[in-house]
Amino acid sequence: MARKAVTPPVRGSRSGRPIMVLLDALGQRWTLRILWELTPGPLSFRDLRERCDQVSPTVLNGRLKLLREMALVEREEGAGYRLTPQGQELGVRLLDLNHWAEHWARD
Asked: Which residues contact 30 (CB under 8 A, 6 or more apart)?
């Protein structure tokens, strides 16, 4: 009988299941909102904070740090924060989820 290969641990997960790490991160308050607001393009810290209903600077800094560590967001000199290519790919998936949610809400 063949044994399943065990995926090595990833970013804070002992299970080695990347989806669990991602869902844990996205489940933190403001994380999805930050990604959503950055989907159209870069924003300064101030603009991002305003779009996130004046989230506290401490919380916003913490979430941005997490998203940078996950390589989903990067800081661009003079432009503020923007999604990395991986973050943009996730943004496309969020747009798909938004489309589904709008359909679901109509039903």
From this structure: 52, 55, 59, 60, 63
What CATH number does the domain containing 73 carry? 1.10.10.10
Q: Is residue 22 part of a domain?
A: yes
| Residue positions counted in the chain | 107
Domain count, the chain: 1
9 CB-near residues (< 8 Å, 6+ apart): 15, 16
What Rg, from alpha-carbon coordinates, does the chain have?
A: 16
What are 81's strand-pairing partners? 43, 75
Domain assignment present for residue 29? The answer is yes
* pLDDT per residue rounded down to tens, the chain (107 residues): 454 444 555 555 666 678 888 888 888 999 999 999 999 999 999 999 999 999 999 999 999 999 999 999 999 988 899 999 999 999 999 889 889 999 999 98
